[in-house]
Amino acid sequence: MAGQNQQQLMLLGAKESFLIISLEKKLEEAGLNNFFQALNVDGINQGIEKADLLVYYLETKETLKPDVLHYLNERLIETNKGIILIGEREDTDNVTDQMHGDLIRKVFPRPLDTEAFLAFVTEELSAESLELKKKRILIVDDDATYIGVVREWLRGKYRVSMANSGLRAITWLANNPVDLVLMDHEMPVTSGPKVLEMMRSEEATSKIPVIFLTGKSDRTSVMEAVEQKPEGYLLKTIDREKLLAELDMFFRKHPGDII
Before 255, cis peptide (omega within 30)? Predict the structure, then answer.
């Protein structure tokens, strides 16, 4: 759909109802590009990469299937994107109770105050435009707790995405440019060194810099990390301020976009 703003809103719903079609038209009239996807795993997967912001319009008494909710949570975290909820209080409360709180940008009650909604979306996309200028970091680690902590440390200053396995990182990098990969050295199945080897063998990912994260500080382990010739390695015991300082130093040395 044509519009003044080149960014995209993805509208999610159980079906493309009359109310959602009406909302699509109002967004288009306001110069806001948008598209609809059915709220299921396939729909989320098809649209989330090209969306800058998601809007979920809940029908009355609509419930979100556990597998869909889990996948939506996971993909929003991976892509560092937010979602707006529209619905009746009881229905939106059920969703907010089951989602990561920081993913939900705002909740609008029904009937929708269209003027307030359009103003908020415009402001969010404006903020997203500034967000796009930030450096892009992919964190790769099989430890969900650790990866979540690091994401929270970095997300204010960087555009942060996450992958919870080496193979998932390879798949993600094939379709998403980043300026740096922070990667666990000791992951099971596909280790950090193996992922780095796979990245170096593909032209599209061969020049992406990698800094290893390691939980081992003994000389042998450190030498094993260095032998893979990453751009650096950091101990997982590093604190927030030190990590931010290390990344700031790295990007001062590499000021241009990698991709």
Answer: no
